[in-house]
Amino acid sequence: MWTLLAKEVIDGKQLSEDEALAILNSDDDELLPLLNGAFQIRKYYYGKKVKLNMIMNAKSGYCPEDCGYCSQSSKSKAPIEKYPFITKEEILEGAKRAFESKIGTYCIVASGRGPTRKDVNVVSEAVKEIKEKYGLKVCACLGLLKDEQAEQLKQAGVDRYNHNVNTSERHHSYITTTHTYEDRINTIDIVKKHGLSPCSGAIIGMKETKEDVIQIARALRELNADSIPINFLNAIDGTKLEGTKELNPIYCLKVLALFRYMNPTKEIRVAGGREVNLRTLQPLALYAANSIFVGDYLTTTGQEVNVDYQMLEDLGFEIEINEKQEALSNA
Predict the structure, then answer these.
(1) Which residue from 285, 293, 317 is spatially nearest to 34, judged by alpha carbons?
(2) Distance CA 319, CA 310 (A)
(3) DSSP line for 234-261
(4) C-alpha neighbours within 13 Å on the C-beta side of residue 154
(5) How do residues 74-112 score in pLDDT, each as one tens digit?
């Protein structure tokens, strides 16, 4: 069943609502056949290559938004480290570490509703040097974006801009009230308008329904997001969603399979919360996804980098880096 569906997806089929729901409702005993189908799609478009991503938390805390999952929000009581926007030199130091670790995409992330002119200038100056010295793909994630800011980032050499939809339009007001779902869509549209690659994904496990999960996958397909990070809620004490534990490893794998079947040509990335939610089944995620974050996240820690590299080696997968990065590595 799943192998046939995978072949149909490769041939151009778009899943119906019933077919998408069947993936999330599938019997646990069907997990391996389901993942095999997802892997056939993944292999068709990406082979056995894996893209590695690393986050630089460029500004922590001090955010006026009230997002219920976030330890940096204005409503959060979580004891996190807070600091203003870091310097160009600190961003470059992080890029050097990423380059030495064979990271393909370096993600510069900052808390807040949106960046100031100074923030955009710092990122722009840093990115120009990163491109020259290390050849890394750079993704910026700075919040709601204006046209002139998107244009400046593009001219500086930023490749991609991340702005997650996070959840479905129906469920959005439960998660945050200080900005709308339409605000997020507008930023993604601005990103695409100025030639930046759109990166947008979800956080699963925030008391959404299975129908919500399907709607997220469908919305991201319609937005034509090039990269889709799938986060699994790591509920942090002091946030609105503290104590929420809705996920188990098998359901998380079904979600990843769903996003692969519904967005077959896109980079599907296993992102925050994979360690605590997928646990010992983490390797199976790469049969649907073709990208992972390596190292720590924003205010939570990831697993040891050497464990991720060992996992990829044991799977027989290959780390993907671009030609310029490879040339600089061999210089």
Answers:
(1) 285
(2) 12
(3) -PPTTSTTTT-----HHHHHHHHHHHHH
(4) 16
(5) 788 888 788 899 999 999 999 999 999 889 999 999 999
For residue range 208-250, list pLDDT tens digits in order.
999 999 999 999 999 999 999 999 999 889 999 999 999 999 9
**CA gap 299, 236 in Å, rounded:** 10
Query: CA-CA distance, 279 to 249, in Å (whole number)?
Result: 7
Q: Which residues pair with 166 in a beta bridge?
A: 202
- Per the CB < 8 A criterion, the answer to whether 72 and 81 are in contact is no
pTM equals 0.95
Q: How far apart are CA 93 and CA 106, in angstroms?
A: 12
Distances (CA, A) of 305 to 269, 276, 293, 302: 16, 16, 10, 8
Alpha-carbon torsion (279, 163, 292, 37), positive or negative: positive
Q: Is residue 248 exposed (0-12), middle (13-18) or buried (19+ Cβ within 10 Å)?
A: middle
E strands, the chain, in order: 49-59, 105-110, 137-141, 160-162, 197-199, 202-204, 227-232, 267-270, 291-293, 318-320
- Quickly count: other Cβ atoms within 10 Å of residue 27's Cβ: 7
Residues 300 and 76: their CA atoms lie apart, in Å, by 15
Query: Which DSSP category does 166 fall into?
Result: B
Q: What is the DSSP string of 7-69?
A: HHHHTT----HHHHHHHHT--GGGHHHHHHHHHHHHHHHHTTEEEEEEEEEEEBS------TT
Asked if 221 and 213 count as a contact pair (C-beta separation under 8 A), the reply is no
